[in-house]
Amino acid sequence: MERKHLICTLVLLCSCSFLKGQLFTKVTSTTNPIVTDPVQSFYNGASWIDYDNDGRLDLFVVRGGLYHNDGNGNFSKITSSGLGLTTGIGNTWADVDNDGDIDCVQSGGNAGGTKLFLSNGDGTFTQNTSGIWALPTSLRGWGSAFGDYNNDGWVDLFIAAPLNFVSITDSCKFLINTGNGNFSRVDTTIVTDTVDAFTVPSWSDYDQDGDVDLFIGSGRVNGALSRDYLFENNHMQGGGPLFSRINSSPLGTELQDGQVWNWIDFDNDGDLDGYLTNYGGTTPTTGYQNEMYRNDNNSFVKLAFADVGSIVTDLGISLSSTWGDFDNDGDLDCIVTNEGPQNNVYYQNNIAQGSAVFTQILNEPFVINSGNHWCATSGDYDNDGDLDLFISGASDKGLFENNTTQTDFINVKLVGVTSNKSGIGAKVRVKANGFWQMREISAQNTFNGMNMLNAHFGFGATGATPLIIDSLLIEWPSGVVDICTSVLSNGMYIATESQCLFPTSLNSFENSTLDYFSLSIYPNPIGDHLSFKYNLHYPEIVQIDILDINGKCVHSKKLMDVVSGSNTSSLDIKNIATGFYTLKLSSGKHISYEKFVKN
C-alpha cells in the first residue's frame, strides 16, 4: 500500500496514549550481573553482539562490562576478555579484519581516547597498538561508526569529535581500512575539515545509490540550534571529492539540536526514511521535538503530527531512538530514551494495520521510569523470536525481556564474502502477507551503540502453521543480490553472500519453541537411509524437509498423526547427491534443525 494513500481520518484517536498488555518484563534476578552491576554516572553506549560466535547474543556496556550469554536467560560477567572497561563513551562493532569474528572500537575523550580491540577468535581481545592506534588520545571522539564507504569489503571508521566536550579540541577522524586490522587516517575531506559539536555518526545508503552516506548530529546542547552535518558519498559517481555536504531542503537546511540519525523504512514502501532525535533545543529544560522525514523517491518530506502523530511533536531531551518490530506485527516500532525529567517513550507503529500514525504506549516498564537514560539497544538474546531490550542510564538501567504473543518471525545473520564479513550496509527485504519489509544492517543505530547485526522481521500471528515467506532478497554492498523463495518463518538463518539462506543449528539454544523436537540423527555421516529421533509433547502432524547448503528443499515428507513421546523415523535418500544437508522438522509453530552429511 502506498504512503500517499495512508491518510488517517482519526488522527487524534490513533495517536493517543493508551494502556495495553505489556510486551516487556524487567529482569530483576539478583544472580544476573547485568541487573546487579552499578549504573554509570556519565553517558555510555551499549551493544548486543555475539562476540564468541556461540549463537547467543552477548551484551557489552561501555565502562560497565562484557556480559556473556550463558543461555536460559543467564549471563556471566567476563573480566578477562581484554576489552577496555574503564574508559570510553561510545562503541561500534564489526569484523574489521574479515577473519570470522567480531572486533570492537571504543570511542572516548581525553581519559582514554579511541581504541581498537581485535578478537583473538577464542572469546578474548587484544588492543591494536600499531600504526595510527599507537596513541589513542590522538583519536579522541564521542561517537564512532563502522561502514564500508567504498565497498571494497573492509569496514572503514568515522569518529565524531564534539568541540570542548571531554577535552576534545580537534575535529572528526576518518579512518580507511587497508586490511587485516590496519587503518590509514584521511584528513583532507569535507567530513574532517570543521570543528563543531559533533555527537553520534551513522552510515546509511539513504538514497539507495549503492554507497553509504554519512550523518552526524551536531547538537550543541546549549540552547542554540544549527544544521546537522549530512554528507553524500560520491564513491558510486566516481571522480570529484569523496563526500559533499547535503544542502537540499529539508534534510540539509533544518536547524536542529541533533543527536542520532536513524534511517529506517517505517512505512514499508521500500525506501529509507529519516528519524532524528533532538536534545534540549531552545528550551533546554523542556526539550525539543524529534523529527521524521519521509522518503518519496529521494524527495524528502518533513512529517507533522497530522501525518504520524506525537512521535514528531513530543518534547523531550532525547538521545537514542531504537527501531525494531517489537510486537512482531510487520512494522518498525520506535523507543526513544530521554535525559532529564521526561520518561522514555514507546511508539507503536500501525502501518501494518493501515495507519501511518504511531500510538504512544504508556505502561511498558522502561517507559514509566523517568531519569537520565542514554542508550537503548535491542536484540533477541533468548532466541525466542522477539526483540529484547537493554537501556543504560545514570538514574537506573534495565534488561527487559520481550514476551510478545505474536509468533511469526525470521532472524537472519549475514556473512559477507566479497562484501565485508559482517554484512554492514546490506539491505534485507522480505515479502509475506502481501507486503514487503526492509532492514539495513548498521553498526551504529542508537546512542553510541548498536542493535544486533542480525536482520529481524515480524509478520503477525497467522495461526498454527508457520508462515511461508514469498521472497527474501539480500542486496550486498558488493552489488550481489541473493534471492530466496518459499522461506519458512519461525527460524533462524545464516545468509552467506552468493549462497542465500542456510538454517542455523538450534541444538545449542534453550528456547523450548525452537528446540521443541529434541531432534537427533544417527549415525552421522549417513548412507542411503536417514534415521532420526525426536520427541513430541502431544500428537500432531510433522513436516519433514531436507535442505541443501543453499536452503533449497530437495526432499520432503509429511508424517500424519505422530504420537506424543519418543519417535523414530527413517527416509530413503539414495537419490540425493553426496554433500552437506540440514534436516528440518516443523509442526504447528515449532521447528527444529539438525545438520548431516550424506556419503
In short:
Helices cover 2% and strands 42% of the residues.
Provide structural commentary.
With 599 residues, the protein is mostly beta strands. 2% of the residues lie in helices and 42% in strands. The chain has three helices and 47 strands. The relative contact order is 0.11.
Any descriptors?
3 helices, 42% strand, 4-stranded antiparallel sheet, single chain, mainly beta, 599 residues
Q: From the alpha-carbon coordinates, what is the Rg to the nearest angstrom?
A: 24 Å
For the biggest β-sheet, the strand order reads: 1-32-31-30
Cα-to-Cα separation, first versus last residue? 49 Å
The overall average pLDDT, rounded, is 90
Biggest sheet descriptor: 4 strands, antiparallel
Low confidence ranges? 1-14, 505-515
Total strands: 47
What is the number of helical segments per DSSP (H or I, 4+ residues)?
3
Shape label: globular
